[in-house]
Specification:
It is built from 17 helices and 6 strands. It has helices at 15-25, 73-77, 89-99, 109-115, 123-131, 151-161, 164-177, 181-191, 216-236, 246-255, 260-266, 271-289, 311-329, 333-336, 339-348, 353-357, 364-379; strands at 10-12, 30-37, 47-54, 57-61, 82-85, 106-108. A 6-stranded mixed β-sheet has the order 1-4-3-2-5-6, sandwiched between helices. α4 (109-115) runs parallel beside α7, α9 (216-236) runs antiparallel to α10 and α9 (216-236) packs across α12 (271-289).
């Protein structure tokens, strides 16, 4: 089947048009929402298009032309209006970061698909399976901050939101039939509260995978490299990964490469990168190598509390039970109870529902649907 024909849509580029649209759809029961951003092309990412569908309308809002989206804020906050998004974690954070928009009554169609046991949950895959529509994805990784935007890119953006409302209604019916709609609704309430992560004054290595395995001297080198990369990325207005890859910086920190020649031997940077940045990077490494031992950074590690030697047996019992239940429900086992949650339950060893509810991170739907079984499983562990 050919890709779906581009739907009709209105491009909103003025405050007056935005206010008129907000007035028209403020009493709708359900709205499809999607957005396009430029995280692949700039240091400080931003929302470049906001697509909304509802009341027979399909609009594409240009926030680079209309930078005040406050007329939409009450709609997103209105609990009587269900906002349908797909894979909404990034969108929820972005809308809050750029426009202080908070979402109440979110329904995430990707999350819903996961709780129905679907294996492939991208919007394209779900729409194709449900409606037989092949979605056009050729503009997925383009620079959405460019202006003017080619007509094809705007049409591409407009094609996503129109599927969300019929998709949501279909998924809600199926979830209700399986008694899982409450599960998804609770997960969506929690998802609507996610916010952008602010690094503040913390060392950058705290958000760098693999940093915890480094020795203190190597950790100091890594921090110096991360600070330099961030400074360079800000100056060039490029994403961090397009300046130097994480793998390159980790290799330099491990090798303690403090000369352009050493960088070349490490094989982690291109000849061009070494020619342009090699001396500065080497100086960063040298500076970190000169830090007195007592001033070197320490990777923070949480002390594990002393736990009963029976905890591993409890975890094994919970996991065995979980895997069996997940197979019966045809769901990903981690969707029911992940490793951290099973461990927390095993450590707590609740003997009743009241104690089970005290386990941090446990959802109400998990207690309601599986609480009695978990208590029984734990009771049977010697």
């Amino acid at each position: 089947m050919n890709p779906v024909d581009a739907p009709s849509f209105q491009l909103i580029q003025t405050p007056a048009d935005l206010k008129a649209f907000a007035h028209r759809i403020c009493r709708e029961k359900m709205l499809g929402v999607d957005l396009e951003a430029d995280s692949m092309f700039h240091y400080r990412e931003k929302v470049c298009l906001l697509q909304m569908a509802g009341n027979g309308e399909n609009v594409v809002i240009d926030p680079l032309e209309v930078n005040d989206l406050s007329p939409l804020a009450p709609i997103f906050k209105n609990r009587k209006v269900c906002k349908v998004l797909h894979g909404s974690d990034y969108d929820v954070r972005s809308l809050y970061r750029d426009f202080s928009i908070e979402i109440d009554n979110l329904f995430d169609t990707q999350l819903a698909s996961m709780f129905l046991g679907e294996q492939e949950t991208s919007l394209g895959a779900v729409v194709n399976r449900r409606f037989g529509v092949v979605m056009d994805k050729r503009y997925q990784k383009k620079d959405w901050s460019q202006r003017p935007l080619p007509d094809g890119m705007i049409e591409y953006a407009a094609s996503d939101a129109v599927h969300l409302i019929p998709l949501a209604r279909m998924l809600m019916e199926e979830l209700e039939a399986k008694n899982r709609l409450e599960w998804v609704e609770e997960e969506c309430r929690l998802l609507s509260g996610v916010r952008p992560v602010e690094n503040g004054e913390e060392p950058l290595f705290l958000r760098f995978r693999g940093a915890g395995r480094l020795q203190r001297r190597n950790l100091a080198i890594l921090e110096g490299l991360l600070q330099y990369r961030r400074k360079l990325a800000m100056k060039k207005d490029r994403p961090l990964f397009k300046v130097f890859s994480n793998k390159s910086l980790l290799t330099i920190a491990n090798e303690m490469a403090d000369t352009p020649e050493a960088l070349d031997r490490a094989g982690c940077l291109s000849a061009k990168q070494i020619r342009i940045y090699g001396k500065t990077i080497a100086d960063v490494v040298k500076k970190a190598k000169a830090i007195p031992t007592k001033n070197l950074p320490v990777y923070p590690r949480k002390r594990r509390p002393k736990v009963s030697p029976r905890v591993p047996d409890r975890i094994k019992a919970i996991k065995t039970w979980r895997d069996r239940v997940a197979a019966e429900l045809e769901l990903d086992p981690a969707l029911l109870f992940n490793k951290a949650l099973m461990t927390a339950i095993a450590v707590k060893k609740p003997t009743g529902i009241g104690q089970l509810r005290e386990v941090e991170g446990l959802r109400n739907w998990q207690v309601k649907a599986f609480g009695k079984e978990i208590i029984q499983v734990l009771a049977e562990v010697p």
